[in-house]
Design goal:
Length: 257
């Protein structure tokens, strides 16, 4: 059994792979100060509900964009799973070229997504990941990571409107029925939703023009499903992109060794 831990700025995903398929997935709010013991208590209860226990794992892989959390996640694997985890950015060989000026600055999540996309989709790719930030990452036909664009996430933009303008309420993000809102909530929802559609379409057009190659656009992340059916700029919606990339990295590093 493999435990994959994918930690973003907002949520942390724990996923269990039995060698053939993903059999369980759970999410927790990301808290940088959460200890290994706290993770173990939370995880052991969820595992028990699925008929599993901490002792079933033969390996663990960790991808985190929160550096101060890696220490505790590593201790979770060592102390409770009794394995030395693979950590993206530390002891894991990704097996791809990172073709940017400062390769060490590439976020673990962006590199994992690049690998997860390349193993399924051929040719040049743009991977859109909608989370705390919205990233647009270019993956070459050989799987190399060639950089991209980082923009504020849709939730962050909505929260910024509420926080900075005294009269603007906190509203749910959803696709409005029409472009021109007839009240404040409708106007905010339209501005954020259709504004992000315009952001996606505009950036994809510019990336394709700059690269000058046929490109497949793949979207993932917790908010990506909101955009499904709203734009033709996105070719595929793939919610499993990140954990597929982590599984591929684990296979490249552990299997056959």
């Amino acid at each position: 059994m493999l435990l994959a831990i994918e930690q973003g700025n907002t949520n942390t995903l724990f996923a269990v792979h039995d060698g053939e398929r993903w059999i369980a997935q759970w999410r927790a709010a990301t808290e940088a100060k959460r200890t290994a013991d706290e993770y173990a208590v939370w995880l052991s209860q969820l595992l028990a509900m699925a008929g599993l226990q901490l002792g079933v794992f033969g390996d663990c892989i960790i991808s985190s964009v929160v550096p101060q959390s890696v220490f505790n996640l590593r201790n979770l694997a060592r102390r409770y799973l009794h394995v030395e985890p693979l950590v993206i950015g530390e002891n894991a060989d990704l097996g791809i070229a990172v073709r940017i000026d400062k390769p060490s600055e590439a976020g673990a999540d962006r590199l994992v997504n690049a690998i997860g996309a390349h193993v399924v989709y051929p040719g040049e790719l743009v991977v859109i990941d909608s989370g705390t930030a919205t990233t647009f990452d270019v993956v070459a036909p050989d799987g190399g990571f060639e950089g991209g664009v980082i923009a504020p996430g849709i939730n962050l933009s909505m929260e910024a409107l509420h926080a900075a303008a005294a009269k603007l309420p906190r509203v749910a993000i959803q696709r409005p029925g029409k472009i021109v809102g007839s009240d404040t909530v409708g106007a905010m929802q339209s501005g954020v939703f259709w504004g992000y559609i315009a952001l996606i379409e505009g950036l994809i057009d510019r990336i394709k023009a700059e690269r000058g190659r046929p490109t497949t656009v793949v979207a993932t992340g917790g908010v990506a499903s909101l955009f499904q059916g709203a734009t033709e700029a996105i070719d595929r919606f793939d919610p499993d992109l990140t954990i597929r990339g982590m599984l591929e990295i684990w296979r490249r590093n552990r299997q056959g060794k």
